[in-house]
Amino acid sequence: LKVHYFPKRILGAVLYSVYLEGFLFCKVRYSQLHHWNEQLRRIFGKGVPAFPPKFYLAMTKSMADERRAQLEQYLQNVSIDPSITNSDVFISFFRKLQQDTFKIQTQQSFLDVYLADGRYLRIDIQTSDTAERVLEVVSYKIELSRELIGYFSLFLIQDHNNGELSVLKKLAEFELPYVSLQSMKESPCKIGIRKWYMDPSLDKMLMNCRTSVNLLYIQVRGWDFSVSLAQFLELAQEVQHYGYIKLAPCSCDYPEAGCTAAIHVGNNEISCCIKLPSNQIKEVSFKINRVRCWQVTFLGSVTGQGLDQFLELRFEYNDSDTWRWIAFNTKQVCIT
């Protein structure tokens, strides 16, 4: 859970905007978080991180900035513990916040969940159903073995005018797909099911299930082999960037400022085809085990809805035994 806070005062109370993976997720007041923290402590005791204290005097700008930083750190620490994130008190709290923020009441509806080949399943849902619940329903309808559900996830996908698709983010298990989709209604987005892991060797775990093999098969587009699906997947694994997620072109400062990059993410690396200002092409692979630390900076949003966001991914990388910071500007930071 990556969150950012931008204060807005409503009727005397500061309203914080919470961003999940760079997209507006919900809005919340300090008092709501304080009450929720007390609920968590009654259930989980000392396992709950320290909550930012109240201020009984008017907050200065520096105090407000400190509180924002503390609240962000608190939520990030809370979301690390699966026993908390899987609890009813966690899920119900963020369910209500997400619905209240986008003014969507709980009611019967339907949701189209797309496969990688453009086909979709229309499923009956409650607007308050979580991504975990929706994924279970989809898996049941397509007869995906229950033991293999964990290898797949729901994603928010942008549909461009030229027919290209961009994977914007993986939906968190406690996120409400219907609400998240409605929050992006001004842009052509859809919910899709895809494998979520980046290690191609895990494909072997799915080969004994017809449905999982079909899902893998249709996710690898643009090929036409007159062989069985299993043979096709074995052949496809020999192709460069098999199993990787392709990101939209973006700007970067490696090896110099003013470069653009075509990026594939997977198998513990960020593989880049970088175009230099001189129009020369440079192939680079950033290995994850050579990254010492990283940070995501939310640089702003034109509308506040997410698709107009400006995000920067910076990581410190061991480049030829020298540590240096490398930056990419992309909407799809969460995928990396």
From TrEMBL:
Ranges for domain PX: 1-101
Pfam families: PX (PF00787), SNX17-27-31_F1_FERM (PF21273), SNX17_FERM_C (PF18116)
Xref: Gene3D superfamilies: Phosphatidylinositol 3-kinase Catalytic Subunit, Chain A, domain 1 (3.10.20.90), Phox-like domain (3.30.1520.10), Pleckstrin-homology domain (PH domain)/Phosphotyrosine-binding domain (PTB) (2.30.29.30)
Keyword field: Protein transport, Transport
Molecular function in Gene Ontology: phosphatidylinositol binding
A GO CC annotation given for this chain: early endosome
Highest rank taxon of the organism: Eukaryota
SUPFAM superfamilies: PX domain
Swiss-Prot/TrEMBL GO biological process terms: endocytic recycling; intracellular protein transport
Family under the similarity heading: Belongs to the sorting nexin family.
Protein name: Sorting nexin 31
Native source organism of the sequence: Podarcis muralis
Gene for this chain: SNX31
